[in-house]
Amino acid sequence: MAAKRVAKSAVEWAAFFERVPPNQRDAYRAFKSKSDIFVSKVHRFPENLPQIDFAAYTTKLNNPAMIAEFEKAYKALAISYPKDKANLRAQVEAQEKEAAIATQKQIAETRKIIGDAQTMLAKIDSVPAPNVMTNEMYADYFPDQARNPWDRPTFWPHTKSYQPENDHQAIH
């Protein structure tokens, strides 16, 4: 049985190299050289088993029955592609699908964050100049950040870390 020859590499080395961080380029080069060495070793051997001239051996040797037995065994020889007994390929494909789902989820979350940031930038661009803005205008533009002493009274300095609900050492 003829082994499948790899005519073209399944890895796009140039695209792979572009994604490698500069601090890992030496490891990438070592990996690629080992891969090239392995491929060259595989290509050193012929694609098919060499043909043996059994007729020449029958004239040279005394036992033609032994040669016929060897010829029959040689022609029956079939080297099959190794089976994945541990089912690693299916595990890798399952991990690939999970990674694709996680990637799509992360892309959706990132797009949402980008949309929120663009909305905030549009809001900031519409805000009047600081020398014109009043506290009331700030409260209109940013209601979640504005001081609201009636609904949410705070103590000076009006930062989160100095408020009573965030004081973990206070006895309540």
Describe the fold and architecture.
It is built from 6 helices and no strands. With 172 residues, the chain is mainly alpha-helical. Helix 3 runs antiparallel to helix 4.
What is the β-strand count? 0
H/E element sequence: HHHHHH
Low-confidence stretches: none
Structural class: mainly alpha
Share in helix: 40-55%
Task: Please summarize the sheet with the most strands.
Answer: none
Radius of gyration: 36 Å
Name the overall outline: rod-shaped
What is the chains' assembly state? single chain
Strand content: under 5%
End-to-end separation in angstroms reads: 82 Å
Task: Name the average pLDDT.
Answer: 85
Total of DSSP H or I helical runs spanning 4+ residues? 6
Pfam families: Mt_ATP-synt_D
InterPro entries: ATP_synth_F0_dsu_mt, ATP_synth_F0_dsu_sf_mt
Main location: mitochondrion
Protein name: ATP synthase subunit d, mitochondrial
